[in-house]
Amino acid sequence: MVDSTxxxxxxxxxxxxxxxxxxxxxxxxxxxxxxxxxxxxxTFIASILGGIYAILMYMSEIRIYSNICLKIILSLAMVExxxxxxxxxxxxxxxxxxxxxxxxxxxxxxxxxxxxSPENVVFNNGRLVGTYPIKMILLGGILGFIxxxxxxxxxxxxISKTDMLCNIKITIENxxxxxxxxxxxxxxxxxxxxxxxxxxxxxxxLTGILPGEILDNIKDIINGANVNIGQYIKKIRIIPFSxxxxxxxxxxxxxxxxxxxxxxxxxxxxxxxxxxxxPGILNKENKYQALxxxxxxxxxxxxxxxxxxxxxx
Length: 313
Hints:
Elements: H1 12-33, H2 40-59, H3 64-83, H4 88-116, E1 121-124, E2 127-130, H5 134-163, E3 165-172, E4 175-184, E5 198-202, H6 212-215, H7 218-222, E6 236-243, E7 246-255, E8 258-263, E9 266-271, E10 274-278, E11 290-293, H8 295-298, E12 308-312
Parallel strand pairs: 4-11, 5-10
Antiparallel strand pairs: 1-2, 3-4, 3-8, 5-11, 6-7, 7-10, 8-9, 9-12
Helix pairs in contact: 1-2, 1-4, 1-5, 2-3, 3-4, 4-5
């Protein structure tokens, strides 16, 4: 039998500090997962708000439905204060990761406390309180941080290849073709004269928008042979490149009218891009047919020049 008159002493300052620490590390983990700039002051203010809420909930009797509504409002406020998202989409991205991190941390902390000192665990008005030492909360927060960050790193590694793919539409002489491109972090190729960016495409994928006289005589054109390519002669470029095993290579290029890249939240329009014609195969499984440089995609509208135009979806 349990003595119903037994009294558990709970210190308000301990409740505040525990929640302050847990809120801070959850917000910090969310920022780490999303690779956001760590805003210590904003994160601390949001954590204080969460700590104050915990005290108010402990000291007052609020119906469960009102409690849930208040928790949702609190989480929205904490995300807004800590991360200051610039768009609705970013806000909900932060919110989802914040909830996932919170659930993970809560599970780890509860499991640790329950298995180490279950006799000290007490539920009061739907909240976990007790006389367990604060070091248990600290340890639970650290373990939760390691688990959630490590898990997301492994997930990102598995989907990184998919994230590196984008759709590209190339138009040359009013003929267009859509291809799948991979973001190539090593592609810094530019036309040495105009400095226009170079998008590398395998020759087979250009069938239909370029005449066979070009695609069948790539080496001859590079070597200066007399090949009848008609109106395309003004668009031809020779691009020097260096790669592993070939320090002084030459790539046949042809100026496109326009190239449109759909990548994540951006539509990047590249005017007068040079299409580097690669005579071999870029990928054995044909998962992608082109290589686009990372520089064109990382700017995300922050800078524009005569070649690039950025449109947010």
